[in-house]
């Protein structure tokens, strides 16, 4: 399965983006939040986190600008009655941390205000996921010390926070500071603030 794609955003439509990866164009369906983020990165080299959904008659790629959004999408797929398209609609209704807070608070009313979510679906989401989502704070804390140092070094060199975070998230957890900074310079050249 495809975990992520690195390439240039060529085009963004109302429900998908076209990503050029070494001359091959991948159509990636995404939430409206991700599409807005990708629109601002047209023509730039970026990483898009991907979930490959396979059915008998189709192979569809779902893309995410952040790993948190991808993780929440995968969690939503575990909920009875929530498929990939509905999960994308839910993610279009707010940022991952906002949706996660609604779930953890058991706020069915707020969840049912999200696109395509009725009262029963909201209750099912809470029942299935409450207390089972990895919080974004825990994800940040689990970053290795080297990742934190690599991030700091690249930010101090003038690279944009969004590009640095995306690059560092793609690195193995055992990456050394020196190797991480060297790879960062190669990958991020041309994306200075």
From TrEMBL:
Its main location: cytoplasm. It comes from the Bacteria. Gene3D superfamilies: 5' to 3' exonuclease, C-terminal subdomain, DNA helicase RuvA subunit, C-terminal domain, Nucleic acid-binding proteins. Homotetramer. Forms an RuvA(8)-RuvB(12)-Holliday junction (HJ) complex. HJ DNA is sandwiched between 2 RuvA tetramers; dsDNA enters through RuvA and exits via RuvB. An RuvB hexamer assembles on each DNA strand where it exits the tetramer. Each RuvB hexamer is contacted by two RuvA subunits (via domain III) on 2 adjacent RuvB subunits; this complex drives branch migration. In the full resolvosome a probable DNA-RuvA(4)-RuvB(12)-RuvC(2) complex forms which resolves the HJ. Residues 74-93, 109-128 form the Helix-hairpin-helix DNA-binding motif class domain. The keyword Nuclease does not apply. The keyword Cell membrane does not apply. The lineage of its organism: Bacteria, Pseudomonadati, Bdellovibrionota, Bdellovibrionia, Bdellovibrionales. It is found in: Cytoplasm. Keywords: Cytoplasm, DNA damage, DNA recombination, DNA repair, DNA-binding, Hydrolase. It comes from Bdellovibrio reynosensis. Has three domains with a flexible linker between the domains II and III and assumes an 'L' shape. Domain III is highly mobile and contacts RuvB. Belongs to the RuvA family. Residues 144-193 are annotated as: Domain III. This is Holliday junction branch migration complex subunit RuvA. One of its GO terms (molecular function) is DNA helicase activity.
């Amino acid at each position: 399965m495809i975990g992520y794609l690195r390439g240039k955003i060529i085009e963004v439509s109302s429900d998908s983006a076209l990503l050029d990866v070494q001359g091959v164009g991948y159509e990636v369906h995404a939430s409206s939040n991700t599409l807005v983020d990708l629109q601002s990165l047209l023509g730039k080299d970026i990483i898009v986190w991907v979930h490959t959904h396979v059915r008998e008659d189709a192979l569809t790629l779902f893309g995410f600008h952040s790993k948190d959004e991808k993780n929440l999408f995968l969690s939503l797929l575990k909920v009875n009655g929530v498929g990939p398209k509905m999960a994308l609609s839910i993610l279009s209704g707010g940022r991952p941390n906002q949706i996660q807070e609604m779930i953890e608070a058991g706020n069915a009313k707020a969840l049912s205000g999200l696109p395509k979510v009725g009262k029963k679906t909201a209750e099912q989401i809470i029942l299935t996921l409450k207390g089972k989502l990895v919080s974004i704070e825990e994800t940040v804390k689990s970053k290795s010390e080297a990742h934190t140092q690599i991030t700091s070094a690249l930010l101090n060199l003038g690279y944009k926070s969004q590009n640095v975070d995306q690059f560092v998230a793609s690195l193995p957890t055992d990456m050394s500071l020196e190797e991480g900074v060297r790879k960062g310079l190669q990958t991020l050249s041309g994306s200075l603030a």
